[in-house]
């Protein structure tokens, strides 16, 4: 799939991003290159290869999962401007 300048302008309008005059053409070209790279990577045969958790072959020393601090939920919520049923209430930011 090739991206066109019109596709990029539509995406910019939907995401409320302002582009300069040569932006749509340049961005369409960049998106085409990313799509080609993604298709190339998707074509690599990975049958029988275990997924990596980390690129480094080492084990991590993990501490025991124990509670080390007292529960101070009521104290913290008493300092908050608004709470309800144990949750913090925040003002609506986006319409």
From TrEMBL:
Single Gene Ontology MF annotation: ATP binding
Pfam families per the UniProt record, alphabetical: GatC
Catalytic reaction(s) noted: L-aspartyl-tRNA(Asn) + L-glutamine + ATP + H2O = L-asparaginyl-tRNA(Asn) + L-glutamate + ADP + phosphate + 2 H(+); L-glutamyl-tRNA(Gln) + L-glutamine + ATP + H2O = L-glutaminyl-tRNA(Gln) + L-glutamate + ADP + phosphate + H(+)
EC top class, as a word: ligase
InterPro entries documented for this protein: Asp/Glu-ADT_sf_sub_c, GatC
Keywords: ATP-binding, Ligase, Nucleotide-binding, Protein biosynthesis, Transferase
EC numbers: 6.3.5.-
Keyword Ubl conjugation appears in the UniProt entry: no
GO biological process: glutaminyl-tRNAGln biosynthesis via transamidation; regulation of translational fidelity; translation
Subunit architecture: Heterotrimer of A, B and C subunits.
Record's function text: Allows the formation of correctly charged Asn-tRNA(Asn) or Gln-tRNA(Gln) through the transamidation of misacylated Asp-tRNA(Asn) or Glu-tRNA(Gln) in organisms which lack either or both of asparaginyl-tRNA or glutaminyl-tRNA synthetases. The reaction takes place in the presence of glutamine and ATP through an activated phospho-Asp-tRNA(Asn) or phospho-Glu-tRNA(Gln).
Family of this protein: Belongs to the GatC family.
Protein name (record): Aspartyl/glutamyl-tRNA(Asn/Gln) amidotransferase subunit C
Gene source species: Thiopseudomonas denitrificans
Gene from which this protein is expressed: gatC
């Amino acid at each position: 799939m090739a991206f066109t300048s019109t596709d990029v302008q539509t995406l910019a309008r939907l995401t409320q991003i302002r582009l300069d005059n040569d932006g749509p053409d340049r961005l369409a070209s960049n998106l085409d290159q990313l799509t080609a790279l993604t298709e190339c990577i998707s074509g690599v045969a990975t049958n029988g290869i275990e997924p990596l958790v980390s690129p480094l072959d080492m084990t991590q020393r993990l501490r025991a999962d124990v509670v080390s601090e007292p529960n101070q939920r009521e104290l913290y919520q008493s300092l908050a401007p608004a709470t309800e049923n144990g949750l913090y209430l925040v003002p609506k930011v986006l319409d």
